[in-house]
Design goal:
Layout lengths: L3 E2 L10 H9 L11 H14 L3 E5 L2 H12 L5 E5 L3 H5 L3 H6 L2 E5 L9 H7 L10 E7 L12 H13 L3 E5 L3 H8 L3 H5 L4 E5 L10 E5 L1 H13 L8 H13 L4 H16 L4 E2 L9 E6 L4 H10 L2 E2 L7 E5 L6 H15 L8
Parallel strand pairs: 1-11, 3-4, 3-5, 5-6, 6-7
Antiparallel strand pairs: 2-8, 7-8, 9-10, 10-12
Helix pairs in contact: 1-11, 2-11, 3-10, 12-14
């Protein structure tokens, strides 16, 4: 049997409808702006985010990089969260390729940065100091169990950034999860952002790709930076077609993932040796502490019994629900977890 794969929502498989759309996609050269399927995806994405324009890119990491390159010059500084994906998982790309200094502001348990602390971190106009060119926020927040920021949270951070002349960027890899959790239009969450990204290849189940949305002039610069980092794709409509299907049919079903994650969290919280507050789980990511053994040992025991999870940091385990994970899979994962934590034998699947 195939394992129950809860490592990430990046392991999702494209739907049959996506596969058909990819096979039948009308294509052209996207670098020339001639791929009709890419153009349609970009127009749909911009409309969903309430922005003037959009550009299709290869990944969420590329999306954040080209936005940072657009907003910042060499020697500038970007303010980011202390637990942000940009800091932890993007290979210091903005520093490496853009010469941009990254400065952190603490993330709380919701992934929020205190606006007063952001205010205090903004650089004054001083020839001895770098210019604060960008403030970036993550929504939902990966390392904070998929926590959600609402429009008030986002607006408060954007106000500080804009008042100091800095761009405001949202790493919205899972922004549709946030919108579904809040029962709010994604455009409402995106409104204050100069740029916002979202991933097609996570909960939306596409095989590859992300989109950057913003104003026309900004997106023109983003597109140029995409080319500079090697992201200019040719007949990209083949993969963009899956993104169109995702926006038309996969957003609403994210609630199923959220419900499964909450069910998973509630079950895990009852087990010995696990630290988890299930009331904090808002979307599809469940991160919990392992108290009575190394987390690596816990993961190995899970894997031996046919359940895959990931290791986000010392003493922690992460499980992510997604398309392809059913309620029955959640129950099976909980049975395995109970057998491990209570020291009972459990045959491999």
């Amino acid at each position: 049997m195939s394992p129950i794969d809860l490592r990430s929502d990046t392991v999702t498989q494209p739907t049959p409808e996506m596969r058909r759309a990819m096979y039948e996609a009308e294509v052209g050269d996207d670098v020339y702006g001639e791929d009709p399927t890419v153009n349609r995806l970009e127009a749909m994405a911009a409309q969903r985010m309430g922005k003037e324009a959009a550009v299709f890119v290869a990944s969420g990491t590329m999306a954040n990089l080209v936005c940072g390159l657009t907003h910042c010059q060499r020697g500038d500084e970007a303010l980011i969260g202390s637990r942000s994906h940009i800091l932890m998982y993007e290979v210091a790309s903005l520093a490496a390729f853009g010469g941009v200094q990254l400065r952190t502001v603490p993330n709380d348990e919701r992934g929020m940065m205190d606006p007063d602390q952001v205010e205090a971190a903004m650089r004054p106009k001083d020839d001895h100091q770098p210019r604060t060119a960008m403030v970036a926020v993550e929504n939902t927040h990966n390392r904070c169990s998929g926590a959600v920021l609402d429009s008030e949270d986002i607006g408060a951070l954007a106000e500080v950034a804009h008042r100091h002349g800095a761009a405001f960027h949202i790493d919205g890899a899972r922004i549709f999860n946030a919108a579904v959790a809040l029962d709010a239009p994604p455009a409402e969450l995106a409104r204050p952002a100069d740029t916002i990204t979202f991933c097609l290849s996570k909960g939306l189940s596409c095989p590859v790709g992300s989109v950057v949305c913003g104003g026309k002039e900004t997106i023109a610069r983003v597109r140029r930076n995409r080319k500079m980092v090697g992201g200019g794709m040719r007949q990209a409509g083949i993969i963009a077609a899956a993104g169109i299907v995702a926006l038309e049919s996969m957003v609403g079903r994210l609630k199923e993932d959220h419900d499964n994650a909450k069910r998973l969290a509630q079950g895990l919280a009852r087990l010995p040796g696990i630290t988890l507050d299930p009331t904090r789980i808002q979307t599809n990511i469940v991160i919990f502490g392992v108290n009575d053994r190394p987390a690596e040992t816990f993961l190995e025991a899970f894997k031996a019994r046919g359940v895959l999870a990931s290791f986000p940091e010392r003493g922690k385990v992460r499980m992510v629900t997604h398309y392809g994970i059913t309620g029955q899979d959640v129950d099976e994962a909980l049975n395995v977890a109970e057998a491990i934590t209570r020291g009972r034998a459990y045959g491999s699947r």
